[in-house]
Specification:
The chain is mainly α. Among the domains are: about 1-15 and about 50-160, Serine Threonine Protein Phosphatase 5, Tetratricopeptide repeat, CATH 1.25.40; about 380-495, Tetratricopeptide repeat domain (Serine Threonine Protein Phosphatase 5, Tetratricopeptide repeat, Alpha Horseshoe), CATH 1.25.40.10; about 500-555; about 775-920, no CATH class. The protein has a two-stranded antiparallel sheet with strand order 1-2.
């Protein structure tokens, strides 16, 4: 059974021989040819067969089988592999399990195989194993020689990368750094998939280092770090690294730090990164350099390394922590001035608003916030102490700077009020009164009450007064306004202060002088509401200022009541009393205006008339009367408005508002049905040369219409005639006035006047030239058409009697006259007139044909002559009837064009009589049969 199993192992092993043997074509042979043929048997899974068993079987195979060299070579290789307990998939520490004798046996087998079968297709694997055996026997030079042969002869071998790496290791141990470098680079050239890439990079870096090739060494170590620490462009967390990865990366950082430290330290690192670009672990490079310096107790150099990163990338997330480490390094070294400089640098780089915070919030980096606050406080306290000692401006400026920075960075800090008061004191002591005033006010009013609130508020007033004498002009006025605001803040914030009432009253006067009426009202009320009250003088001042301000703010009801209070504080002979009375009248008047605007008309009229009754000599009396009437008119209280307006015109005959009174009376009369009286007022308006042409024209038109509505026909006609005479332009309204006059003369049967206005309409349109309008043409066309009626009537009145020639001539003349008028009406192109004229012309022709047929026959005609005469008449009448038909048809055709007025209908009716076969057909409807469903 063991024999069978061993044979299976051997056969399975031999099946792995190179494919070239299987690819060689062989001719068909005999049974004898099978002797040297390879038997392909699927490898059976190893079921507990020990390496010693397999080795023994391979030995027996070699003893018994001196035939096929390929099979012998493969068996020798397999036996050698079994001796070193390895195959292509698993390799271990040979010295841990093998004896020197076993290793020597393996070497002998491998050497024999290589010498016996120099073309053995798997010689690279044999060399690989041979080198391992030499290494296990601690013969590195022999191992190196074998590896040299292997990589030279088999550059595409599966074991090439590992062989080169092992070469590098041996060469590096032998201090042959240039050769080791080349070996490691050969591994690197194979790419990351070999499994030795990272180690080769790392060892190549050390090789370069040993060769003093700093740039190449740094590049190699950085590549190692790139591969170990960077994933998807981001820095891997330290906890995510395996132990080998951590150790390798830490060694790489240290190697880099050593090389940089041997040169110019941070400057060298800056320069190297400037060429290469900053990796995501840049901070670790500087930190590694700083840590190396710390180990050597080179504290300044360590601080410089830490600070170099913060300087290079101040907005980096790790920059603040390295800046802190720089400060700590200075502290360890006892460099006090450097510590101060470091704190200052930290604040300058990481105060809020710097690039570091552009994409971050304070809660994103709380440790940076805490360090910022601590450093700011240290800086401010240090320079404050210096300023108190030296009194030098630069020390005051430095302390001020850091206090400001502290307040800006931490405005809500519980210590902020005290900090700001110290800042104000520093500014005041150094003569910076403007800034001191601002900070005192901020301290007093922009924090919750604290121990120094009132002190700061009063100190602000002192600071205002200290600075004001140095100002002039607009600057002084502006500063004084700010002083007033500060006084108000002080009085309101600290009302129990003994000077609060006096300060408030003075601020009240100044505010009114500045037209700050809302503020004056507020402050005046505060003065008057104080308990205990201010003295009488200040009470009158505050009350008067309150009344004036209420008036200016259009709070007239309150102003009236307050003025009455002021009046009560005045002696009877006070020279200011008349002015107060006038103000009272004005306040009442403005109340009336406000009520009018709000729609309370009755109250508005009452207030207007109250001004008249209470202040009859005041300047606003006439306006109050007029406005009372206006409200009544606007509210439609016409009957009440009329006597007020009439009284105004009577009492103020020369007042400039009389023109408006006339207008209002015109409307009032009109609304109360007194149309004739209204028309008279409109005529007054039209007669006023002061009015615009449009106003006068509209008034004259309105007067004419009102006279007409009142039944005053004569006065209406006169008004329309006046309109035409005075306002011929615009043309359309004047044409409408002529139309009204035409209608009025028609109604009065004044034919001469009627004819006059017909001619006026036609003439006005004709003379308008380019100013003709559609309206004027329409009216002129209708007027022209109307002038055809007398001619048509004259035509109809001519009877055809014998002798026919004589009477026909007269009738034809009358017809031509009528046709001429109709033709002129057609020229206007007005559809309504065109159809009527066409119908009229057609009827003239039809009537002439009919009159010819019905004309008087000559006497004495016998029957034949009479018949011939009738035929002759028909021949004469036929063309006229045809002409009539053509004209009626032309009119009827307009129906298809969308024109179907009375004249078109009449043409259809005429055609039904003239051509009944075509135009008198009755419509026949289809019988309705409901559909069955």
């Amino acid at each position: 059974m063991k024999r069978i199993l061993a044979l299976g192992i051997v056969i399975a092993s031999l099946s792995a021989l190179p494919a070239e043997a299987a690819k060689k074509p062989k001719p068909a042979g005999t049974i004898g040819d099978l002797e040297g043929k390879e038997i392909q048997v699927a490898p059976e899974q190893d079921k507990g067969v020990q390496p010693e068993q397999a080795a023994e079987e391979y030995r027996r195979f070699l003893e018994l089988n001196a035939g096929d060299p390929k099979m012998r070579a493969e068996a020798m290789r397999r036996l050698g592999d079994l001796n070193v307990e390895s195959d292509e998939a698993a390799r271990g520490d040979l010295t841990a399990t093998l004896t020197p004798a076993q290793l020597a046996g393996a070497i002998k087998l491998y050497e024999s195989l290589l010498s016996t079968f120099p073309q053995y297709p798997r010689a690279d694997a044999v060399m690989y194993q041979l080198s391992r055996a030499y290494e296990a026997l601690q013969q590195p030079d022999r191992a190196l020689a074998v590896l040299d042969r292997m990589v030279s002869k088999y550059p595409t071998s599966h074991w090439y990368a590992e062989a080169q790496f092992r070469r590098g290791e041996i060469l590096f141990s032998n201090r042959r750094y240039a050769d080791a470098e080349r070996a490691y680079n050969a591994v690197i050239d194979k790419g990351p998939s070999t499994g030795f890439y990272d180690q080769a990079l790392y060892k190549a870096g050390w090789s370069y280092f040993k060769e003093a090739k700093t740039d190449e060494s740094v590049a190699s170590f950085l590549k190692v770090l790139d591969r170990l620490l960077v994933k998807d462009g981001k820095l891997r967390e330290r906890d995510a690294l395996t132990r080998p990865e951590r150790e390798l990366s830490e060694d790489a950082f240290r190697a880099l730090a050593i090389q940089v430290a041997d040169l110019d330290g941070p400057e060298t690192l800056d320069a190297m990164l400037a060429k290469r670009g900053d990796p995501v672990y840049t901070h670790l490079l500087y930190e590694g350099l700083g840590n190396l310096y710390l180990e050597k107790e080179r504290y300044q150099d360590a601080a410089g390394a830490f600070a170099a990163f913060a300087k290079r990338r101040p907005d980096d997330r790790y920059a603040p922590s390295l800046q802190v480490r720089a400060i700590e390094a200075y502290q360890k070294g006892g460099f006090a001035s450097k510590v101060l400089e470091g704190k200052q640098a930290f604040v300058e780089n990481y105060t809020f608003g710097q690039p570091f915070w552009s994409q971050r919030k304070p809660e994103d980096a709380p440790e940076v916030v805490a360090e910022l606050k601590s450093n700011l406080k240290d800086l401010a306290q240090y320079h404050h102490a210096q300023a108190q000692k030296t009194k030098k401006p630069e020390d005051y400026a430095a302390a001020t700077r850091w206090y400001r920075q502290m307040l800006e960075s931490f405005p809500q800090d519980p210590e902020a009020p005290g900090t700001r008061f110290l800042l104000a004191e520093l500014l005041f002591d150094s003569g910076h009164y403007v800034e001191a005033t601002q900070e005192y006010e901020h301290t007093a009013y922009e924090y919750p009450p604290h121990a120094r609130s009132a002190e700061a508020g009063y100190a602000a007033l002192v600071s205002y007064q200290k600075y004001e004498p140095s100002l002039n002009g607009e600057a002084k006025a502006k500063w004084h306004r700010q002083f007033i605001e500060s006084e108000l803040m002080f009085a309101n914030s600290f009302p129990d202060h003994p000077n609060a009432g006096a300060v408030l009253t003075k601020a009240d006067e100044d505010l009114f002088a500045l037209n700050e009426y809302d503020r004056t009202i507020e402050v005046s009320q505060q003065v008057l509401a104080r308990k205990p009250p201010v003295d009488a003088k200040r009470t009158r001042v505050a009350t008067t200022l309150l009344a004036h301000s209420l008036f200016e703010k259009q709070r007239y009801g309150e102003a009236e009541a307050t003025y009455l209070r002021v009046q009560g504080l005045m002696p009877a002979d006070d020279p200011e009393r008349p002015a107060i009375v006038e103000r009272i009248a004005a306040a009442i008047y403005h109340q009336a205006e406000a009520k009018q605007a709000s729609g309370d008309s009755n109250a508005a009229v009452s207030d207007y008339l109250r001004v008249v009754s209470l202040a009859p000599t005041s300047k606003v009396r006439a306006n109050a009367e007029f406005d009372a009437a206006t409200v009544l008119v606007n509210q439609g209280q016409w009957a009440q408005a009329i006597p007020v307006l009439e009284q105004f015109r009577s009492a103020h005959p020369n007042h400039e508002l009389n023109a408006d009174v006339t207008r209002k009376l015109a409307v009032a009369y009109q609304e109360t049905g007194k149309k004739a009286e209204a028309a008279q007022e409109f005529e007054r308006i039209a007669a006023r040369r002061e009015e615009t042409q449009d106003v006068r024209r509209a008034a004259q038109w309105q007067a004419a219409q009102l006279y007409s509505q009142a039944g005053a026909t004569t006065r209406a006609a006169s008004a329309y005639a006046t309109y035409v005479a005075q306002f011929p332009q615009p043309l359309d309204p004047a044409m409408d006035a002529r139309e009204h006059l035409l209608e009025m003369t028609a109604a009065s049967h004044d034919n001469a006047a009627h004819t006059h206005w017909l001619e006026e309409i036609i003439s006005a349109d004709k003379s308008a030239g380019a100013g003709r309008t559609e309206r004027s043409k329409y009216l002129a066309a209708k007027a022209t058409l109307e002038t055809a009626e007398p001619a048509a009537a004259e035509f109809k009145s001519v009877k055809l009697s014998a002798p026919l020639n004589k009477s026909l001539k007269a009738k034809r003349a009358a017809m031509e006259k009528a046709l001429g008028v109709y033709s002129r009406s057609l020229d206007y192109g007005v559809a309504e007139v065109t159809t009527a004229a066409t119908y009229g012309m057609a009827e003239l022709y039809r009537q002439l044909a009919a009159d010819l047929l019905a004309s008087e026959r000559p006497k004495g005609l016998d029957a034949d002559a009479r018949e011939q005469y009738d035929v002759l008449l028909e021949e004469q009448a036929y063309p006229f009837e045809e002409k009539a038909i053509q004209l009626h048809q032309a009119n009827a055709k307009r129906a298809s064009e969308g024109v179907y007025d009375k004249s078109v209908q009449l043409s259809f009716e005429a055609l039904a009589k003239l051509m009944p076969a075509r135009y008198a057909k009755a419509e026949v409807g289809e019988p309705y049969v409901p559909e069955l469903r």
